Amino acid sequence: MRKVDIFDTTLRDGEQSAGINLNTAEKIEIARQLERFGATIIESGFPAASPGDFDAVQRIANTVKNSIVTGLARTVEHDIERAWEALRGAEQPHIHIFLATSPIHMQYKLMKTPEQVVEIAVESVKYARKYFPLVQWSAEDASRSDPEFLAHIIRKVIAAGATTINLPDTVGYATPSEYGAMFKYMKDNVVGIEKVKLSAHCHNDLGMATANTLAAIENGADQVEGTINGIGERAGNVALEEIAVALHIRKPIYGVETGVNLKEIKRTSQLVSQLTGSMIQSNKAIVGKNAFAHEAGIHQDGMLKNPLTYEIITPALIGDVATELVLGKHSGRHAFKDRAIKMGFELSDEKINKAFLEFKKLADSKKEIVEDDLYVLLTDQQINEKNTPVYELESIQVQYSTDNVPTATVSVQNPNGDKISKSAPGAGAVEAIFNTLELVVEGKVHILDYRVTSIGKGRDALGEAVINLSYNGEAVTGRDVAQDVLEASAKAYLNAVNRKLLKSEKIEEVATK
Ligand code: KIV
Ligand code: ZN
Question: Do residues 363 and 329 make contact, with C-beta atoms less than 8 angstroms apart?
């Protein structure tokens, strides 16, 4: 059966979304999960963009072995050299170079003539081929480019050594028939196109990314690019889980294989949502909370008589199985470690011990510990790179009543290891905590967004807080989990501040090398 490769760009195009800022440990964790998910290619970042991006791409390239790892580059030698330094340790080094080809981009953004654009594209591909065996070239804004010019530049970059040609719908403007027709046109008009992989890359501005990607497949695309949960610039990229499941459920129509391990979809989606702090809308196809919920009486009746009346996908297909009760208060360290290994975690003994202590604390106050709870505890240990966060919450006390002004008292260990205690009032309990923490972290903080959700069900479910704030003028997102939402909120606030501080520290570290 024809194979369509899955190119995941969650860590590059997805990470470009407003409010998402993953650290290196989180990116590695997502990359390892994408490998289990079965991504053919993982775009792990833009090495020349920042020292942090470079570090993440390099570490992912050295960690992931079953997926090809790539990095983005502009058509300049410096970007290509940085990409090579970051990716040379990968199993199959792959680079992704892009250059815009639409009249509007060439004239106003690049300020180049079409002839100059062709020359730059060709030279950059030739330069990249000196280092990389696999070179993908993207015609940015391809869907708004002149087809004849596009065919011409594609011929030239293939001759220069490109191994994949990507035709993005950068601004999500194309309709399915237009996008499909562009692929057919290139297949029919570019001599040598059969020697390279043809790739689709769709954005969702008009809500047509999935339909457009499927149209590209029907018209000969060999590879599709997208992100988990559809995260990405503006309205996002195509959601890869939608493509993988559509191709599976409608196999007789499309007749293609992707190599995606469908049972890993739910976990991959949850991990990306948890670490990016970006919520999945409840009616989101495939991975939304309500994607398999049947509410109407007529539907429920039909389902009872025969599930096929209303159910075209089962939750089990994507690995959404009822989370069992896994361990209890009396479970020992061995059983805990065993379970962690079965769940796919590879943690040092020190990290297992820390996670075990957290588990014991949770088991004292939560009746049932299910796999989702363990997953959160273990993931938190896995991504905890620095054992000493810059600020660490020690205790929190809130006086709250509807008749008085709420006041919070918070004790925190600061970066020097000193304990600081402060109090402040607020209009509500959460505001009092945030006002107090602002005194602790000694900077100007503005809360841009804040939300609390539950992990799992029941009144004793863990609470997850996600907070997007600006700290001394720079926006950053933090998240944390606790059984109490006030504690989770305080920790999420400090997590955001810590991320900002660690990021600046890393940039300084690299700058002084
Ligand atoms: O949307 C786009 O055009 C891109 C390119 C960099 C491939 O993301
Ligand atoms: Zn894109």
Answer: yes
Ligand nearest the Cα of residue 102 is 1
Q: For ligand 1, atom 6, which residue shows the shortest CA distance?
A: 98
The closest of 379, 392, 400 to 420, measured between CA atoms, is 392
Contact 216, 185 (CB under 8 A): no
| In the predicted structure, residue 324 carries a pLDDT above the cut 90 | no
Place of tokens 């391990």: 261
Q: How do residues 290-320 score in pLDDT, each as one tens digit?
A: 898 877 788 878 878 888 888 899 999 999 9
**Residues near ion ligand 2 (Cβ under 5 Å):** 13
Give, for ligand 1, the residue of 74, 98, 124 to mutate: max count of ligand atoms closer than 8 Å to Cβ: 98
Tell me, yes or no, whether 408 lies in a domain: yes
Give the CA distances from residue 458 to residues 366, 377, 474, 483, in Å, rounded to whole numbers and listed in that order.
Answer: 10, 18, 37, 12
Looking at the fold, whether 58 and 122 belong to one and the same domain comes out as yes
Q: What is the DSSP letter of 387?
A: S
Ligand 1: which atom is nearest the Cα of residue 12? Answer: 8
**pTM for this model (two decimals):** 0.91
Give residue for tokens 């180049």. 112
Q: Can you name the residues that pair with 463 across neighbouring β-strands? A: 454, 482
Looking at residue 370, what is its pLDDT?
A: 83
In terms of phi and psi (left: phi > 0; alpha: psi -120 to 50; beta: otherwise), the region of 436 is alpha
Atom of ligand 1 nearest to the CA of 168: 3
- Same domain, yes or no: 472 and 372: no
Three-class DSSP category at 5? strand
Of the CA atoms within 13 Å of residue 201, those in its CB half-sphere come to 29
Cα 28 to middle of ligand 1, angstroms: 22
d(CA 431, CA 447): 10
Separation of 117 CA from ligand 1 center, angstroms? 16
The answer to whether residue 313 sits within a structural domain is no
What residue numbers bound the domain in which 148 lies?
Answer: 2-276
Q: Are 46 and 53 in contact (CB under 8 A)?
A: yes
Give the Å distance between the CA of 97 and the centre of ligand 1: 10
